[in-house]
Design brief:
The complex is a heterodimer of chains A (351) and B (227).
Chain A lengths: L2 E9 L2 E9 L3 E5 L6 H9 L6 E6 L2 E5 L4 E2 L2 H4 L1 E4 L11 H10 L10 H7 L15 H14 L4 E5 L7 H17 L4 E5 L2 H7 L2 E6 L2 E7 H7 L9 E4 L5 E3 L2 E6 L2 E5 L10 E4 L3 E4 L10 E13 L2 E8 L2 E8 H7 L6 E6 L5 E2 L2
Parallel strand pairs in A: 3-9, 3-10, 7-8, 8-9
Antiparallel strand pairs in A: 1-2, 1-4, 4-5, 5-6, 10-11, 12-16, 13-14, 14-15, 16-22, 17-21, 18-19, 18-21, 19-20
Chain B lengths: L5 H34 L5 H13 L2 H12 L6 H7 L7 H25 L3 H9 L4 H12 L1 H16 L3 H6 L10 H10 L4 H28 L5
Classes of the chains: A alpha+beta (351), B mainly alpha (227).
């Protein structure tokens, strides 16, 4: 996907200025509410016109205030998944899924109903009305409906924020698998750092209507480590757990992690905050934390008055944070061997 | 025992015919008017809204008189109608027009309420999925305002059955030609010994109104999907 945007739009005292080009297929647009993300979505979709500027998608001009081009929304081939599913209540699941497909020119139809229904696990639901589906089912139908319109670009405008945590992380694999399976480039719009890291590669950060950063999702999380209440969230993908006394041992990074709980879903990830790790220069003989990992410092980065410490733990990598003073006292430097202590209760299941 | 004369049957048939015709003729215009006032913004929109609602506040006799001025032989549209070879005044068509005009605001109001209840995002979603404006109108807006359309049509139908003031002026009170139920009841009520006959027609009137209201409720309930 090649998206080139250079637009301005004013509402009262709010002014959106967006000027960027994006080449990747997994674009993230990050910002707090009121930062201008949703306005940008509307401008891209064509449901709102910029005051001035140009929008190009894959070389085609969608909007230009100079030449007067303004391709109507139905011809842009850009689909949206909103925060709420917004399914057509007078149609059944199949009718909803096929709404965009029927209106897509024959030569552009790449994705068919059958395979999509399989991937989104909607097999038994096709003839059902949409009013009694669960929240997760509705959002899967909305996603399927958007994908089946065979868009050139899929805009996901906070598609997870209306779902509760448990459901949220069950939907993410679907979002990823359909866009990967059918090779649909997408722009993922969110104010959640974790969602951003799970979904996007390159991220554009908006604040008060202006682009303030262009970075990767992981870099962004590091930069914001000191301002975030939860620090930097390490996302771990451990193997299946086995009981170990009252705890559970998960294979990870060539060793094992002891955790207080067993994950509810087999493919769940574990969260670990950079704040929940304590670093030791030498092996502490006795310690209450159940995990003591011997790691090598891969690198350091600064974030405010904190130092982020990247640790190689076997085949995996973790980020811990320490105060600058602590880093100096411990003599932490790249290449040094170090011990990281993590309590078994410090982990959280994602979702 | 209440009994009906052949003239009464004529009046009942005519009333129903006029009400059905007035409702059917008004429906497309009602939908269009409701669509415009709900979804379009333009200069003079307030004027249009006032104009649509005017018949609701005017005495029906005034409406009848204006229609007479408009459609009469020497009326403003008279020459045009004569050219086309159409006679409207004092025919059942005049009763249809009178009913349509008087009931129109009720029809538009109900449809408008239906349209205003549609989530804006559904319309946006349909456009984003490749539907043109008219396609969205036909496949999303109209189906989702169906309850409003049904409600408006039943109101319009019921209002037409009861139309009196405008009809008597523009269509007259000719038995067998333009005499609808209310006009027949008026005749009976004014003639000595007509109480029984008036009462019989009143009973029929009540029965038809109840039927329409029940039908409206039934359709409204049926339209709510339960799965």
């Amino acid at each position: 996907m090649n998206l080139a945007v250079s637009v301005t739009k004013c509402f009262g005292s709010f002014r959106l200025e967006a000027d960027f080009t994006s080449e990747g297929d997994r674009l993230g647009i990050f910002g707090e509410s009121g930062s201008g993300k949703s306005t940008l979505v509307n401008l891209l979709a064509g449901t709102m016109a910029p005051d001035a500027g140009t929008i190009h998608l894959d070389g085609e001009c969608l909007y230009s205030s100079e030449t007067g081009v303004d391709v109507p929304p139905e011809k842009r081939r850009i689909a949206i998944v909103f925060q709420h599913p917004h399914l057509f209540p007078h149609m059944n699941v199949k009718g909803n899924l096929l709404y965009g497909y029927k209106r897509c020119a024959r030569e552009n139809r790449r994705i068919e109903l059958g395979p999509l229904v399989g991937i989104l696990k909607l097999e038994g639901l096709l003839e059902r009305g949409v009013n009694n589906l669960s929240g997760g089912e509705k959002q899967r139908v909305a996603l399927g409906r958007a994908i089946l319109s065979n868009p050139r670009l899929l805009l996901m405008d906070e598609p997870l924020s209306a779902l509760d945590d448990d459901l949220k992380y069950q939907i993410i694999p679907y979002l990823k698998s359909v866009s990967e399976e059918f090779q649909i480039p997408f722009a993922f719009i969110s104010h959640s750092m974790v969602e951003m890291r799970l979904m996007a590669d390159r991220v554009i950060v908006f604040e008060k209507g202006k682009i303030i950063h262009r970075t990767t999702a992981d870099q962004l999380a590091r930069q914001r480590m000191h301002t975030s209440q939860v620090g930097y969230i390490n996302l771990l993908k451990p193997g299946p757990p086995r009981a170990s006394g009252e705890l559970f041992a998960y294979p990870w990074g060539g060793g094992e992690l002891l955790v207080t709980f067993k994950v509810k879903h087999a493919d769940s990830m574990l969260e670990l905050s950079s704040k929940d790790m304590i670093l030791f220069k030498n092996h502490p003989e006795a310690i209450s934390a159940r995990n003591l990992l011997q790691c090598r410092v891969a690198g350091l980065f600064e974030a405010g008055n904190r130092i982020g410490v990247e640790l190689d733990c076997g085949s995996e990598r973790l980020v811990a944070e320490v105060a600058r003073q602590a880093a100096e006292d411990l003599g932490i430097a790249a290449g040094k061997e170090i011990f990281a202590a993590i309590k078994a209760s410090a982990f959280r299941e994602l979702g | 025992m209440l009994s009906l004369t052949p003239a009464d049957y004529d009046a009942i048939r005519l009333s129903v015919r006029v009400a059905v015709a007035a409702t059917l003729v008004s429906l497309p215009f009602g939908c269009a008017a409701a669509f415009i006032v709900t979804y379009r913004n333009f200069r003079g929109k307030v004027l249009l809204e006032v104009f649509i609602n005017l018949p609701l506040t005017l005495p029906p006799v005034v409406i009848g008189y204006v229609l007479l001025l408009l459609l009469g032989k020497n009326g403003w549209l008279g020459p045009l109608l004569e050219l086309a070879g159409v006679r409207i005044i004092f025919t059942w068509k005049a009763a249809v027009i009178a009913s349509a005009v008087v009931g129109f605001p009720l029809l538009v109001r109900s449809i408008r309420i239906g349209m205003e209840g549609i989530d804006e995002k559904l319309i946006q979603a349909s456009r984003m999925l490749g539907a043109r404006r008219y396609d969205t109108l036909l496949t999303v807006i109209l189906p989702l305002s169906f309850r409003g359309i049904i409600a408006g049509s039943s109101l319009m139908f019921a209002r037409s059955l009861g139309e009196f003031g405008a009809t008597i002026i523009v269509a007259g009170n000719i038995p067998g030609v333009t005499q609808t139920m209310p006009l027949a009841i008026y005749d009976y009520a004014g003639s000595p010994g007509g109480e029984q006959m008036a009462l019989a027609l009143c009973a029929v009137s009540v029965a038809i109104s109840l039927l329409v209201l029940f039908l409206h409720e039934y359709l409204g309930r049926k339209l709510v999907r339960k799965d």
